[in-house]
Amino acid sequence: MNDTILSLRGVNKRYGKTVPADDFSIDIERGEFFTMLGPSGSGKSTILRMIAGLEQPDSGQILFEGRDLTHAPPWERQLGMVFQQYAIFPHMNVQGNVAYGLRRSGLSKTEIDARVEELLDLVGLSGFAPRRVAQLSGGEQQRVAIARALAPRPAILLLDEPLSALDEKIRREMQAELRAIQQRTGTTFIYVTHDQEEALTMSDRIAVLNAGRYVQCDRPEAIFKRPRTPFVARFFRGCNVLEADLAPEGAAVLARLAGITLRVPGQIDAPRKGHLAIRGETILLGEEAAAGDLQLSAHLDSVTYRGLYSSYALRLADGQALAATHSQQPELTEGVEVAIGLRAADVVVLDEE
Amino acid sequence: MTRSLKSRLSTWAVWLFLAVVLGFLYLPLFPPAIHSLQGPAVQEGGIWANYRAIADDPILVGGIWNTLLIGVLVALVTPLLSLLIAQALRAWKKPRLILGLVLLPLFIPGVSMGVATALFFRILGVDPSLLTMAMVQVLWALPFSTLVILTVMANFDDVYLEAAHMLGANRLQAFFEIELPQVYQGILGGGIFALILSFNETIRTSIVQGGENTVQTYLWSQYQQIGLNPTLFALMTLLIGLTLVLVALMAVLEMRQARMRRAG
Fold first, then answer.
1. Structural domains of chain A in order of their starting residue, each with its CATH number
2. pTM of the model
3. Ramachandran angles phi, psi of A246, nearest 5°
4. Residues of chain B contacting residue A81, judged by C-beta atoms under 8 Å apart
5. Domains assigned to chain B
6. What tens digit of pLDDT does each residue of A89-142 get?
């Protein structure tokens, strides 16, 4: 697919010392669920607000289907937006809220009513039209906000941390529903979040942002398994980032870690100090260690039972900490040396930022 | 035992102190009311005689009409100007300095403000009239009404406007369809505040009054030149009562606004 619906070209934005967008360029495909993931202050919300027209870039261009929208006011962009604070109009009922974007559409009252009911149905709130806002829970208000934003059939729906004010259980339900709504309507979603799990669950593509730039942009599985830099690796829970001395060797890299040399896949130009990423669940422990093609040993500091899995706090000979997770809970004693096995394919040589 | 006695005593002391303060604040309001029910006219024409006499004094009746006319004008113009100021303060995002400039007239002594305005009108060639009186009062009420409206607008989250913009509403549509319905009670409050201030303003108004009188300027000149009579006490009592009713109305609006916020 190469059907770009929205392009950002060299967008810059600066507020004093913070730089929410630093020469930021990106292409978003029609119909995809695109997520901008980053810690607070990474610029993700400001970039979304510039797409919406609620903020102006200092320089650069925003193109919608090839048209330059950079300086168009938000009400002329025909994009939808869902806010973290829901922003349901308190002086209108549910019907009034969902119908608000249709007021200037030229539709008749009957057509508007039908569209409102269709959307309330889509978000699982059939029959809620006459309800007052004060009678709605947080989750219901956010569903109304989604219905309201989708009612005028925007080509793109912008979502600014829409689930972060909701509690855990409702958030998980809504993740699945948002994905389903996106696929059913075929609307392009641009989603902003700081929650890695949310990004992985819903997205077609994720851009990981740091200080107004994107560090990596890829499919969720690729980002999760093969982070490009230490920043991305540390952003995903359960990933170990270890310092190592790296040297090129043909089509591979020799990594010297805790006094042992490991041959791992990768490509570097010259010997350098660098970082390796190893996901906790790929580490083989104790008797299983022999199944790995790289062998190390480590001191087992502690074992924590976490229900579905146990986590093992390990320490390598050079003092670097390593966290492993294992669902079978192998019988290991705290405070002893244990054998560690790694598969070369699970070790990622990171680029430096 | 001693402890509970001590705490009970201190509770009584606090209530007593509160009663003294409230007495000091509100007792002076009663003598005019009492005077308004006394005097020779009451013995002949019954208890409300002094109140009926208000209607027989053509100057006083004219003053009442002027007061109402100016009051309505001030109550309409002031909150609208305040609303414009408040909107500009939000749009410019540099409210401190400009807000300071708007509030400064509060601290200028009334006589100075009145004289300065009178001179200004004379330089412009504007003769004293009901209009100049209304203008002086608008200047006086503007800072108060602006503060009332700013407070209400501070409770209004801009995200509602952003949501409206994303749904196709331009600035004007978003203001009338989304913001105004949520803040109108504050604007009403600003208007009532301006009305109260207009009814009560004397010094600034008397300097630019020319040939016209409001109830207050009339009362003030009578008090200074002749002394008060029972009819004027009746009028004062009515004014005090009306002011209290308006204040109560403002409080009710404030409470309703707060309840709406909680519901929203």
1. 4-225 (3.40.50.300), 230-349 (2.40.50.100)
2. 0.84
3. -110, 145
4. 162-163, 166
5. 54-263 (1.10.3720.10)
6. 999 999 999 999 999 988 999 999 999 999 999 999 999 999 999 889 999 999
